[in-house]
Amino acid sequence: MKEFPEIQTERLVLSALKEEDRSSLFSIFADPLVTYYDGGKVMKTSTQALHYIRAFKDTTSISLTNTIRWGVRLKTSNTLIGTAGFQNWDRTSSKAEIGAILSRNYWSGGYGVEAAKAVIAYGFEQMKLHKIYAQTIEDNRAAVKRLEELGFHKEGRFIDHVYLRNQYYHVLVYSLFQ
């Protein structure tokens, strides 16, 4: 892959993160409600946002980290509203884990589903994935609802799999096959 891929949907552009996204990305990841089910770690400085951007901003990061993370932008204004992509890309088994984070301002309106559909299509068509999977804390009812809406099927449940906020949480695994 020579150039970072860009994906366009009806309302969104998924493209490489840029250093100019630093403040927007920081404001998204500094919101404790946004990261509540995603490890619960909020960004405390804009330097953390810059490190995040540098980790995922070009094609080199894809091969080094087995991760591809797009910035999710509004097509009309180029406003960064979140990130979406794959991690844990296993090329031998043709599978990858999907994930996304959106600014709370965009939780309703279908932006997450629209971005996820585009990422899923890219995964199956361009990355030639056989399986796309997602892991979410069982209490994250919104994520479970969205995964099922996208056609994912529950594959399993890990008991006391994640420790956050002084307690253990069960994790559900959902999968979608080509």
Structure description:
The chain is of the alpha+beta class and 178 residues long. The radius of gyration is 16 Å and the shape is globular. It contains 5 helices and 8 strands. Strands 1-2-3-4-5-6-8-7 form an 8-stranded mixed beta sheet, with helices on both faces. Helix 1 (22-29) crosses helix 2 (46-56). The longest helix is centred in the middle third of the chain and has 15 residues, at 111-125.
| Helical residue percent band | 25-40%
| Radius of gyration, CA atoms, in whole angstroms | 16 Å
Structural class: alpha+beta
- pLDDT < 50 runs, ≥5 residues: none
Structure summarized in a few sentences:
By secondary structure, this protein is an alpha+beta fold. The chain has 5 helices and 8 strands, in the order E-E-H-H-H-E-E-E-H-E-H-E-E. It has an 8-stranded mixed sheet, sandwiched between helices.
Structural topology:
Elements: E1 7-8, E2 12-15, H1 22-29, H2 46-56, H3 59-65, E3 68-74, E4 80-90, E5 95-102, H4 111-125, E6 131-137, H5 141-149, E7 153-164, E8 167-177
Parallel strand pairs: 5-6
Antiparallel strand pairs: 1-2, 2-3, 3-4, 4-5, 6-8, 7-8
Keyword list:
alpha+beta; 8 strands; 5 helices; 8-stranded mixed beta sheet; globular; 178 residues
